[in-house]
Design a protein that fits this description.
Layout lengths: L3 E5 L4 H11 L4 E6 L2 H10 L7 E5 L5 H9 L5 E6 L7 H4 L3 H22 L3 E10 L12 H20 L6 E6 L2 E2 L13 E2 L1 H13 L4 E3 L2 H10 L4 H4 L5
Helix pairs in contact: 1-7, 3-5, 5-6
Length: 240
């Protein structure tokens, strides 16, 4: 029987290339996504065997449905990969508590609740890999809620790493910078932007090498190391 891994955020471009990377290791995939049709298109475009994919179309905020699907698993899971996320719009969120709640649900609360719900299904010596963000390293006004949610997620993973240490479960925190995706096309130096295919390769290799903290682009590690040296009284005056 093939080992099984779960991917949350399965209709993203990063997930498409993660399918490609992990497929060669003979895994079966349990995919949670918003757009099942798109997932199927991505799988077929890579000429992968669709029968190795169990695809569930589900709203990330529908905890009851997510839990029912998880309860249906009658086997252990070898890995969880979480790439789902949502940047939000801080100008709208600051005026609307429901939008703030939505941001925290997608980026912090529901990932924690679902991953925690999955823990009994994980086999020993398995892995959890979660895509976070450089935004979680220090808060910024232009992404105030997103930054704080990602900071909470990074710290949750740190605590989870301690919790699961005796079970030898790898907790792999992935910290990307800018990525060239369908929904995120920012004008920036090409040295600061990473293609989804390369992100997937780095995630795959980092899991294989049992790395716990992974910066997708090393330049961002340098940038935020410098930013963290700026005293708060000076940092608050910056606008970026």
């Amino acid at each position: 029987m093939r080992s099984k891994i779960i991917i949350y955020g399965g209709s993203s471009l990063i997930s498409k290339y993660l399918f490609f990377e992990f497929y060669k290791d003979d895994y079966e995939f349990i995919v949670f996504c918003r757009d099942k049709k798109k997932v199927i298109q991505n799988i077929e475009s890579l000429s992968l065997d669709l029968t190795r994919f169990n695809i569930h179309s589900v709203n990330l905020e529908d905890l009851e449905k997510n839990q029912k699907i998880i309860d249906s698993f009658d086997h252990k899971i070898h890995g969880i990969i979480w790439v789902a996320g949502y940047t939000g719009n801080p100008e709208e969120e600051i005026k609307n508590p429901e939008l703030i709640k939505h941001n925290y649900n997608i980026n912090l609360i529901n990932p924690i609740l679902i991953i925690n719900y999955l823990l009994p299904k994980l086999s020993d010596n398995s892995f959890i890999s979660v895509l976070t963000s450089v935004a979680g390293i220090r808060g910024r006004s232009k992404r105030i809620f997103y930054c704080s949610a990602k900071a909470g997620l990074i710290n949750y993973l740190s605590g989870l790493r301690q919790l699961l240490h005796n079970r030898k479960i790898l907790v792999n925190t992935v910290i990307p910078g800018y990525m060239s995706t369908e929904k995120f096309n920012i004008k920036a130096s090409k040295f600061l932007v990473t293609k989804p295919s390369k992100v997937a390769k780095i995630i795959y290799k980092s899991i294989k090498n049992k790395k716990e903290i992974v910066f997708i682009n090393f330049l961002w590690r340098i940038i935020f190391f410098i930013l963290n040296l700026i005293p708060e009284k000076n940092f608050k005056k910056l606008n970026f």
